[in-house]
Amino acid sequence: MNSNGSLIEGIVIRAYGGYYYVFDGRQEWECLLRGRFRYENRQVLVGDRVYLKPRHGRAGVIEEVLPRRTVLVRPPVANVDQAVIVFAVKDPDPSPRLLDRFLVVVHMNKIEPLICFNKVDLAESGRIELISRYRERYRVVATSARSGEGLSLLRESLRGRVSVFAGPSGVGKSTILNAILPGLNLKTGEISAKLKRGRHTTRHVELVALPEGGLVADTPGFSSLDLPDLKPEELAGCFPEIEAYQEGCYFAGCLHYREPRCAVKEAVGKGLIEESRYRQYVEFVEELMDRRRY
């Protein structure tokens, strides 16, 4: 409860049909919004920490929304501590380009990434190398919902945090959560043999309480992702290996694109920065520059 003892603090774990379901750490409340929220056209998101006023039974009214630490637009979740970015090593094949887009979005939203490579029981040697490359720069866990490999490490990584699961369709987000939380019974989808991508199975964002502590969201899969609204010169900060070398550039504000005497391009030439990651960085720079022209 808050200082005046009449309101209860909790977190919005799901919302639909005009109702907001708030978990206070012990029990769940079915809440409506105070009328002024609708008048002010203020949106309440899953993940928002709120004060509610109890009514009869387990019903309540949301009186106040506390300031947000982080906000994701797609999926719409507030106050996320980490994003579990799930990609399959096969079926569907992973797209480093799309994974890098996820990492840029997560970085710009000040959320810590955890890359989860799923279906490692199907892994081939080339895919193992892909996992190793990302592990050099990011926290990575390799899992198989089928065999159970890596799930205990993933559970530990979720402990005490608000985590969002994100990634393309068909990579196994819901399957992983079903394995971690037996009885959850989230719907899962088969991979389309024709399109080679999964069907969308999750219809709304919901936070689920974990036995070990922490909350996790299973969110709709999607296969395309726009870069956030950032300046081209901000992009290097989203690539740890590029950020590490940019202080050595001759020109202040170097984009590591076409400028001479660039320490980043020199590092690429020496093999200190992976060329494919640098090419992806350049593609994103050009995309951001094109966006600014219009």
Automatic annotation (TrEMBL):
One of its GO terms (cellular component) is cytoplasm. Residues 69-225 form the CP-type G domain. Pfam families: RsgA_GTPase (PF03193), RsgA_N (PF16745). Binds 1 zinc ion per subunit. Keywords: Cytoplasm, GTP-binding, Hydrolase, Metal-binding, Nucleotide-binding, Ribosome biogenesis, RNA-binding, rRNA-binding, Zinc. Its cofactor is Zn(2+). PROSITE patterns: ENGC_GTPASE (PS50936), G_CP (PS51721). The keyword Chloroplast does not apply. It is an enzyme of class 3 (hydrolase). Gene3D superfamilies: Nucleic acid-binding proteins (2.40.50.140), P-loop containing nucleotide triphosphate hydrolases (3.40.50.300), Probable gtpase engc, domain 3 (1.10.40.50). Its EC number is 3.6.1.-. Belongs to the TRAFAC class YlqF/YawG GTPase family. RsgA subfamily. One of several proteins that assist in the late maturation steps of the functional core of the 30S ribosomal subunit. Helps release RbfA from mature subunits. May play a role in the assembly of ribosomal proteins into the subunit. Circularly permuted GTPase that catalyzes slow GTP hydrolysis, GTPase activity is stimulated by the 30S ribosomal subunit. This is Small ribosomal subunit biogenesis GTPase RsgA. It comes from Pelotomaculum thermopropionicum (strain DSM 13744 / JCM 10971 / SI). The lineage of its organism: Bacteria, Bacillati, Bacillota, Clostridia, Eubacteriales.
